[in-house]
Design goal:
about 130 residues
């Protein structure tokens, strides 16, 4: 899959997120080997991919972009990290070959947002 194809999927996700009031503000794609292959221009997680992979492997808390998060949901569709100070959420939707990571605003309905994110992540199965 080309970078353009990945960008198109994330652009679709962004538009649908706005239309459906999902409140996802930033998205990144990280491979299973820890390569950051895409991130939206408003969210920089460069050099933080190990943290993301640690969560996928079972970490119960993490620090991303200098904010503390606690994993409050771990399920087959993914993981939800909740900021300890009410500054929003990090959503993790694994797919075959990597993980789609998103920052969701404090007002987000996280189970709904995670299902939404997963519906786009599966479009990347085996393609990164």
């Amino acid at each position: 899959m080309s970078m353009d194809e990945i960008k198109n999927i994330i652009d679709e996700l962004g538009i649908a997120s706005l239309e459906n009031n999902i409140k996802i503000a930033g998205v990144a794609i990280v491979t299973d080997s820890g390569d950051l292959i895409f991130q939206t221009s408003n969210w920089d997680i460069t050099n933080q991919t190990k943290i993301i992979l640690d969560v996928i492997r079972g970490a119960s808390s993490f620090i991303l972009s200098d904010l503390n998060y606690t994993v409050t949901r771990s399920a087959t569709e993914g993981f939800i990290g909740t900021n300890d100070s009410g500054m929003g959420y990090i959503l993790f939707a694994p797919f075959q070959g990597g993980v789609c990571v998103a920052y969701a605003l404090p007002q987000a309905d996280t189970p709904k947002a995670l299902s939404f994110l997963k519906s786009y992540a599966i479009k990347l199965n085996g393609k990164v």
